[in-house]
């Protein structure tokens, strides 16, 4: 790999440093908002928001989405803005460190068609699973664990064990 | 007194920008680096997560102890353990197959990855499918295994916060020690250069 090293690509932060900064960001989030960081909730807000536009009556009467749209359109939620922020922060980090590169990542190892199918299938499972758990790796795993929630550690244990098993059966990237 | 319970646009944007900035700098926009955790070659995911959990948990405890944070004022996920187990397993499987989780896929898109856009389409489809299929079965699965006593270890099992933080610190040291041992044996963590070049052929 050294032979292909190009100038301008800055190394990633060491895990300890990244973890300390992430912990402080998470702490700040708790102090400001009263809850932790999340991600999959924004997808949920998007689905509920679209539902409210396309089929308002059915969405309001829906067993799962109904309570979420009772206070108005969820598209302007804290979580939606947080995800817009994640996009800005990640773009800034990637650009300033010379790590922004347009690519279909994983194409070189599994082929482009296979990679697209796997990314779609993986996203589907993660999106569906996050709704069962009530959050994803950031909302339940990270934020829930920092709040010393029991379910966070159950989530993380099953997340890791299943991920290890499945990664041996299917090469995703 | 904290928390401010500010759930407005500026609060969301600020926390999000910082979150995204750290995620990309940790290398978590790269599906190669992320999924190397499951192959035990790169332990950055667990090292970063456990460090952040300990820092935030200690910070929350200290601020509560010093009287700056109201007791029982921050959100704790409901202790529905069956739901957490099924959900965790599915998110783990999705991570292994797709190379991201919902949050890191956003960092993936904004470091230029087209496959991350596809992953997000999948996340939205999976979320919509859950809503479409929502009924008695999914409802009971989601709420299954609920601990009535409470959501935290202190409430559910009477394990006090300092003891729990001590256990987490021990787990953190174990993750760093074990992780670095595996990383040395399996060819080291994925570098930024390797991540930017994209997934390598089978190694």
User: Which bin fits the share of residues in helices of chain A?
Assistant: 55-70%
Task: Tell me the number of strands of chain B.
Answer: 0
Structural class of chain A: mainly alpha
Number of helices of chain B: 10
Distance between the termini of chain A: 19 Å
Which oligomeric state applies?
heterodimer
Tell me how many strands of chain A there are.
0
Largest sheet of chain A: none
Q: Tell me the strand percentage band of chain B.
A: under 5%
Q: What is the helix fraction of residues of chain B, given as a range?
A: 55-70%
Shape of chain B: globular
Average pLDDT of chain B, rounded to a whole number, is 96
| Biggest beta sheet attributes of chain B | none
Distance between the termini of chain B: 53 Å
Structural class estimated from helices and strands of chain B: mainly alpha
Task: Characterise this structure.
- The complex is a heterodimer of chains A (173) and B (203).
- Chain A has 173 residues and is an all-alpha fold.
- Chain A has 2 domains: 11-101, no CATH class; 103-173, no CATH class.
- Chain A is built from 9 helices and no strands.
- Chain A is globular.
- The model of chain A has no long low-confidence stretch (mean pLDDT 94).
- Chain B has one domain (20-194).
- Chain B is built from 10 helices and no strands.
- In chain B, helix 1 packs across helix 5 (102-109).
- The N and C termini of chain B lie far apart (53 Å).
- The mean pLDDT of chain B is 96.
């Amino acid at each position: 790999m050294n032979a292909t090293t190009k100038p301008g690509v800055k190394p990633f932060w060491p895990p300890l440093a990244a973890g300390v900064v992430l912990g402080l960001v998470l702490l700040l989030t708790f102090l400001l908002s009263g809850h932790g960081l999340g991600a999959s909730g924004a997808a949920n807000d998007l689905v509920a928001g679209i539902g409210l536009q396309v089929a308002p009556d059915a969405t309001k009467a829906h067993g799962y989405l109904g309570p979420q749209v009772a206070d108005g359109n969820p598209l302007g939620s804290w979580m939606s803005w947080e995800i817009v922020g994640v996009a800005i922060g990640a773009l800034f980090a990637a650009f300033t460190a010379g790590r922004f590169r347009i690519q279909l990542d994983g194409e070189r190892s599994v082929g482009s068609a296979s990679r697209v199918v796997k990314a779609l299938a993986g996203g589907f499972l993660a999106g569906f699973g996050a709704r069962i758990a009530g959050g994803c790796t950031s909302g339940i795993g990270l934020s829930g664990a920092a709040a010393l929630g029991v379910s966070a550690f159950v989530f993380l244990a099953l997340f890791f064990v299943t991920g290890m098993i499945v990664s041996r059966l299917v090469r995703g990237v | 007194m904290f928390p401010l319970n500010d759930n407005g646009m500026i609060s969301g944007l600020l926390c999000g920008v910082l979150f995204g900035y750290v995620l990309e700098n940790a290398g978590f926009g790269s599906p190669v680096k992320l999924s190397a955790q499951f192959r035990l070659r790169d332990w950055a995911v667990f090292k970063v997560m456990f460090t952040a959990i300990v820092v935030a948990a200690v910070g929350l405890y200290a601020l509560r102890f010093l009287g700056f944070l109201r007791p029982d004022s921050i959100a704790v996920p409901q202790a529905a353990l069956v739901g957490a187990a099924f959900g965790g397993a599915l998110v783990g499987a999705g991570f292994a197959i797709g190379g991201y989780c919902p949050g890191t896929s956003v960092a993936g898109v904004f470091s230029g990855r087209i496959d991350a856009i596809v992953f997000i389409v999948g996340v939205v489809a999976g979320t919509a499918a859950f809503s479409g299929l929502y009924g008695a079965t999914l409802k009971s699965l989601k709420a299954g295994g609920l601990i009535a006593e409470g959501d935290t270890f202190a409430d559910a099992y009477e394990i006090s916060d300092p003891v729990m933080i001590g256990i987490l610190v021990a787990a953190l040291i174990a993750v760093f020690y074990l992780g670095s041992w595996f990383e040395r044996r399996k060819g080291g963590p994925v570098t930024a250069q390797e991540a930017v070049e994209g997934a390598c052929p089978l190694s």
